[in-house]
Amino acid sequence: MSDLPFDAVLFDCDGVLVDSEPITNRVLAEMLGELGWKLSIEESMRTFTGKAVRDEAALIEARTGFAITPEWLSGFRERRNIALHADLLAIPGAVDAVRRVHALAGGRIACASGADLHKVEFQLVKVGLHDFFAGRVFSGHDTPRSKPFPDVYLAAAAALGADPVRCAVVEDTVTGVTAGVAAGATVFGYSPPGMAGLGHSEPDAMRAVGASVVFTDMSQLPDVLAAWRAPADVRSPRLSGAMSSLPERNVMTTPSAYQTQQPERTAIDALKGAAVVEFGTNWCGICKAAQPVIVEAFAGHPHVEHIKVEDGSGRPLGRSFNVRLWPTLIFLQDGREVARLVRPTEAQPIADALAGIDPIA
Questions:
Q1: CA–CA separation, 297 and 305 (whole Å)
Q2: For the chain, how far is it from start to end, CA to CA, in angstroms?
Q3: Which of 103, 121, 284, 350 could cross-link with 297 by S-S, CB 3.0 to 4.6 Å?
Q4: Around Cβ 161, how many Cβ atoms within 10 Å?
């Protein structure tokens, strides 16, 4: 039984639970220097944090002329692991935060990292966190794709029997946030003061790809998770008759999921009054990032129907409106398009378009 508004909490490891990035990048910078690419530790962190070294083979070859081999990667991991065994510490506040989240979540937590499983496991052991995650540690090396793809988070959620949409993800990089958002989770970004670019991404950069909250102190995490409330949907009473093929439409819409059910274009054309059709996907970071300004704009127009439709290949409604980018908002009056906005970043243009179809709000 969870005392949190989530069915499970999924943690990244490096930079969230353990302060490993400076150590790993010290070794990586040394080995790249041996190949002729001279990097400071800080430059290495800005280039490689949040990414698997094996996935950056093309970049390394372009800068050094050396095609990294399995033997080179094995040597890197060996030297890295020796350094981590000697110097690794937990992120300040992480041990107590995990202990509290473990209790609040009824034990339904997991660690989902892009690093190799051996590294993740021994790091958790070294800093005293492994018992909280025993049997629930997942590596992107063991999934078809690593971060920024969602595979490792989807695997962790599946192992816990949790719907990814009902999971919280704790991340500290744009790469990781993108993976969590793509999985459909609510992502909490950790960005300690003065450390942006040095193993952790900038708060605004994480928000831009869909982080719902950015916090600065790991000791805050249990309270931040417990306090999270996704704004409730208020369902429209006007769905009937010819509109029965439409997904439910929201008044004062908040970041609810894009509906997979596809209404017919004829049903959209038959709408009466003011309505907005929003096209996007539940894994789209730009779509999630746009939700706060969409919510803000709709707050002044509580009676405008808002239909959120999942778009993508083979989905005819989006093609009928010639949608190419997400999110796209189509503003309708009596089923006729009068305006559209693509990837809005501010509330005012949305509010202006809403005023055009709902002048008396």
A1: 13
A2: 43
A3: 350
A4: 9
